[in-house]
Amino acid sequence: PTGGRILGRRGIVEADESGRGRVTSRGKTHIEPVQGSKDKQQIVVDEVPFNVSLEQLIEQVKTAQNEGHIVDIVAGYNESNSKNPIRVVVELKKGADPAVVEKQLFEYTSLQQNFSVQTIALVNRQPRTLSLREMIRFYIAHRVEVIRRRTSYLLNEAKKRAHLLEGMILAVCDIDEVIRIIRSSRSRVEAIERLMERRFQIPATHPHAAKIPARLMDQVRRGESLGGVALSRLQAEAIGNMRLIQ
Predict the structure, then answer these.
(1) How far is CA 239 from the centre of its chain?
(2) Neighbours of 200 (CB within 10 A)
(3) Higher-pLDDT residue of 240, 112
(4) Are 58 and 17 in contact (CB under 8 A)?
(5) What are residue 128's DSSP bridge partners?
(6) Which positions ≥6 away from 123 have C-beta within 8 Å?
(7) 132-173 vs 10-18: helix crossing angle, rounded to 10
(8) For residue 211, what are the CA distances in angstroms to 80, 163, 165, 173, 195?
(9) CA-wise closest residue to 166 among 241, 240, 227, 234
(10) Highest mean pLDDT among 7-11, 32-36, 145-149
(11) Among residues 236, 234, 166, which one has the least CA distance to residue 198?
(12) pLDDT for 224
């Protein structure tokens, strides 16, 4: 998020192939003249390695100056603002070589950092160091499993809902008998038991026959030899839980 560049490719290749590697990250800079001066220059830091604090970087510049590691700098300060989120200015002494000072900044401050790469993930609840190819393969397998489980759950919920609705259809097609059973029962439990004992049929001449799903009509036809289709307990309880007016 703070930019910078990676030096070389070997560390990246090693990390991708084995899951372990070491990369060097360096901030980006440019040289510009100091305003109001014709022969003085300053190094402007536009990007820094990840996790490098600008205040920490400026403090390191001051420390390197005080300890004599970098002698050709006047001061370092933070000019970051909304327009330039990262802008650290290192003002140079008159006649200083910007290339030399820049190299010293990379050596004595966090403007250049070494990062160790170790790609670890849980595979079957065990930590493993993975290559990039393995990481992608296991991640895809994980996503497939998540989607499969989610879809299976949604399918089961839809099947439960369909089962209840099929019971409702059977009840609606013989609603007068359903109401008679409920009203003549002494309790809800008795009404549910009697609804389960009742065999329901839907004649082909029924006014609602054309609107009923073919799967349910096939189930009704197969149950004709038994006197009709019996409601399951779930279906009977769903009907018993409804208000009579419904």
Answers:
(1) 41
(2) 21
(3) 112
(4) no
(5) 121
(6) 130, 138
(7) 50
(8) 70, 17, 13, 11, 23
(9) 234
(10) 145-149
(11) 236
(12) 85
Contact 131, 137 (CB under 8 A): no
At 134, list the tokens. Answer: 């393995």
DSSP annotation of 84: -
The whole-angstrom separation of Cα 28 and Cα 106 is 10
Task: For residue 118, give the nearest of 18, 51, 9, 26 by alpha carbon.
Answer: 18
Q: Tell me if residue 77 falls in helix, strand or coil.
A: strand
Contact 109, 65 (CB under 8 A): no
11, 117 in Cβ contact below 8 A?
A: yes
- Strand (E) or helix (H) holding 217: helix 214-222
10 Å Cβ neighbour count for 176?
7
As a whole number, mean pLDDT of residues 192-197 equals 94
Beta-carbon neighbour count of residue 131 at 10 Å?
Answer: 16
**Helix, strand counts (H, E) of the chain:** 8, 11
Cα distances from 194 to residues 9, 223, 226, 244, in angstroms, run 78, 18, 17, 16
Confidence (pTM): 0.58
Q: What is the mean pLDDT of the chain?
A: 92
- At residue 246 the predicted structure's pLDDT band, cuts being 50, 70 and 90, is low
Tokens matching residue 207: 């006014």
From the CA atom positions of the chain, what is the Rg in Å?
38
Report how far residue 201's alpha carbon sits from residue 171's, in angstroms, rounded to the nearest whole number: 10
